[in-house]
Amino acid sequence: MKFEAVLFDCDGVLVDSEPITNGVLRDMLAERGWVLTVQECMRLFVGKAVKDESALIEAHTGQPVTEAWLASFRERRNVRLVERVTPIPGALQAAAAIYALYGGRIACASGADRYKVELQMDKCGLMPYFRGRIFSGHETPRSKPWPDVYLAAAAALGVDPARCAVVEDTVTGVMAGVDAGATVFGYSPPEAGHDAPGQLRQAGAVHIFTSMDDLVALLA
């Protein structure tokens, strides 16, 4: 095979969480006077850590983004995720097949906090394929679009990043994978919350696919 390991993003690639998370964020921004639709909120924040967008939020609300506010956001978000999060269609089957194909050399490298990633993995039945190989951008010096989390995942697997495939669905994530030196596969289904094929290609994605059913064949 061309690659030695496969590194997955989490939100929007493995789990269908973006509309849920951004629905909570939209509500909390509205409480501070910045009224957005869920779609507008997703356009601004998908693929980014909320804590990294503090300046934007403060500019539109006139209120500081405190640790207490961020903690409240995470608490409300987690409650909603437990209630509603589901796997991306075909993601569970793709993860199982790629785990077997690569002898377990797969990892999840997310810009989200570890608690959220692990909550979603458990809820969606994905943990057996990623346990012990989950990496959070909150635990690296810089989060996406910087490459740190992908470099950490590749190092933990003992694989040169240039021999890794990265699976991403946002420009922010694609930039991180490209800067890590990996080959990026861009997931771009028609549903809201994923960047368009042209945007992903422009950011450096080499392959674009629209269904998780196609991913195994692309990586074989």
Helices and strands, with pairings:
Elements: E1 5-8, H1 18-31, H2 38-45, H3 54-61, H4 67-84, H5 91-101, E2 106-110, H6 114-124, H7 127-130, E3 134-136, H8 148-157, E4 164-168, H9 171-180, E5 183-187, H10 197-203, E6 207-209, H11 215-219
Helix pairs in contact: 1-2, 1-4, 4-6, 9-10
In short:
This protein is an alpha/beta fold and 220 residues long. It is built from 11 helices and 6 strands.
How would you sum up this structure, described in words?
- The structure is a single chain.
- The chain has 220 residues and is α/β, with parallel strands linked by helices.
- 48% of the residues lie in helices and 11% in strands.
- It is built from 11 helices and 6 strands.
- It has helices at 18-31, 38-45, 54-61, 67-84, 91-101, 114-124, 127-130, 148-157, 171-180, 197-203, 215-219, and strands at residues 5-8, 106-110, 134-136, 164-168, 183-187, 207-209.
- Strands 3-2-1-4-5-6 form a 6-stranded parallel β-sheet, with helices on both faces.
- α4 packs parallel to α6 (114-124).
- It is globular.
- The protein starts with a strand and ends with a helix.
Strand order, sheet with most strands: 3-2-1-4-5-6
Mean pLDDT: 95
Strand content: 5-15%
Low confidence ranges: none
| Helix percentage | 40-55%
SS element count, helices:
11
Largest sheet entry: 6 strands, parallel
Give the helix/strand class. alpha/beta
Number of strands: 6
Order of helices and strands: EHHHHHEHHEHEHEHEH
Radius of gyration: 17 Å
- What is the 3D shape? globular
N- to C-terminal distance: 6 Å
